[in-house]
Specification:
Length: 786
Amino acid sequence: MAEQPHTDVPIALELLVHGVGGTTPEQMLDDPRTVCLAGDTTAGIHRRACDTDAEAHPGRYREAPVPEAYCWSNLTSGNAGRALWLLLLPFMIANLAHWMRPPSTRTRLARWYEVAVRLLALSLTVLLVAAVCEVALDIVGWQCAGRAACTHDKSWLGFAAASRGGWWSQPGRRLALAAAAPLALTGVLWWLSHRTWYAYESQRPAVPSRPPAPGAPSLAQPGFWYGRRSVARLRTAHTAVGLLTIAAALLTPALGHDRGRPGAVLPAIGWSLAGVLVVLVAIAIGVTVRAHRVETGLDDTADPRTTRLLLAGSGTLLAAAVLYGGWSRPGWHSAGRLPSAQAFSALTITQGVLVALLAGTAAALHRARPAEFEDTAPALRGQAGPAVALLGCAIGGVLTGGIAERAADLLDRGRTPGQSGSPLAGPPAVLTWESSVIPAVLVLVLLAGAWLALRLRHEERELCPEVDALYPGEVHHRSRTRHIASALARAGLTDRAPLLVAVLCGTAFVLGGGAVAAAWIGGGTPGEEARGAPGPVTALADTAQSLGSWLVGAGVIALVAVGRRAYKDASARRTVGILWDIGTFWPRAAHPFAPPCYAERAVPDLTWRMATWTQATGGRIVLSGHSQGSVLSAAAVWQLDPQVRGRVALLTYGCPLARLYGRWFPAHFAPARLRELHEEMHAWCNLWRRTDPIGGPVGIGGKGVAGVAGDAGIGGPPVDVGPLLDPAAYGRSAAHPLPEPVLGHSDFQADPAFARTRAGLLARLGYPVPAVPAQGRPAGLPDPLV
């Protein structure tokens, strides 16, 4: 006899969303037999094989929701090749600075903040391409190929050696050939940005039946996760600026040679090309300034004609620069360095000015924050964006100087470029100074690590009495207590991240400014500047210069090795994926060559699934998100129509919404924004532990469970459930015959509080559930949601 449908009780769905590092559908559903209902190998909806037709038999699921897993791990750590994106870390950091803007009602000032970040990101593209030009054009094509002492043992460079008098021996032709390296890099960056956008970010989100209310947060806007137009315009501008940087590197030495020479044709051509270059650079800057995001709708408008012609004009100018620079000039000989030192110094100063402008704008925005954001405690008092942007510039400058110095060292066969006995002049002095400060930064990091270790030991001793008080009636042992106290102390390190970032950024600013000043005032490298100094000073300068070169070379090799290992080792892929997950949640609003945003695929996936499932079944959903999955879940709920949102309950655990995102991205996840989401949600509960280094309480709602303070101005049940006791038992007992581990950020579903909290959420949704037995409840935790 066929099963009769039960129309009185709607079916319920528990949609599980995993966190950082990823997992398999089999692990999420605790069943080896799973099927993919929707999606693909990159991201998909999975169920147990026995639950595939659950909607046709609602009577079977009267006492428990249908478990369903959204697995998005392959959006981040699935493809091992994405590990190589770590080499573009400064681009990702600059993109994060865009989203760290303080909340404010001054929209024009906020627009200027975003413009400053986009211009800073554009300067990082120039820096990367200029760094490759410095290595390929200056050190290899100009210096090494122009000196017989450098090319005599390098057969791969013999065809271009000036001493052999071949067709490629003229400096202009050598430079034109060497320009293939930065041109290939620019092409690869454009291709990666274009391909990954179509693979991840081109997913159209669900269009709401009615627009959000005026003043709704950005995360609730329909176009927030659809940045097609802005990313396309930024990609065009950055690619054009990369091509123009190469053209400038070719035009400058050729034009410098032609000035004052007999004949007026070549100088006229060179100056004309330089004028066109200036115009195209101005157009690219204008395109970058106007490439703002449109979040109130799905922006599919075509790019203006100026933007479409910019890339073609830049490519044409580069081809003309290659022809102009490669024109035969028999009397031209390469000597010294290319005139690039002023360019790198000017670029560093420009970045410093932009960071200062960004800091001033952020301070004004923070002072003008709305009244509802008064309880917001942003990281670094609203200066997180400028600090992170400065950190990205510092990393880019250090990598540029270190790579240039390492390339010169490798070509010089162990000698020190720029010193007597070396055929190479080496990179510009400013880059050498920047690579020389790397040991100082490393010493600072080691000192900060030592200070943190001492603080941890001190806090561990102070927490021991508190740990013993959590487990009354137990026979306490010093080693067990210290182990638990150590976990609590380590979990608190996350809250000290702003201080460490401030120290690193301040040091980077001082050392970077000192490097530029030393290069401009002294004009020489650290080793050259110390030649007249006493022996220990000279040795220290030489050691800093060489050590900085080796450290950067080792760092780049280590990143590449991680990427290569990730092709073969799944565990390495997961490790790299953690960094990827944290840095690529946000759309590419500032830098189009940053790693792609996985949330522009994941959030529409979740929104479409919840909207279509509730419409088809009339059922209720418990959206269960762990760690980064809780951030994706909250972002997806913000995108739902109000009638769909009323059928959804949110269950978060290991949740970094308030602890990390609320502090570093206050305009989007400040307590005021989370309160708005709480008021619009039918039900929301958040489980947390003190031993968790990532997640924490949300801090909104009524008085929290177990004494967790919430917002007294908001009524209703509390959001936070916790802190959950971790470990669940201090020592061995009949209920726990083996020692219980400190779980920290993992295994929340194994805690009895998880099942009770989920049952309470289902009850709020109008779904009857059986009473949850009290056995196994951690000591000190009352029943939530009663």
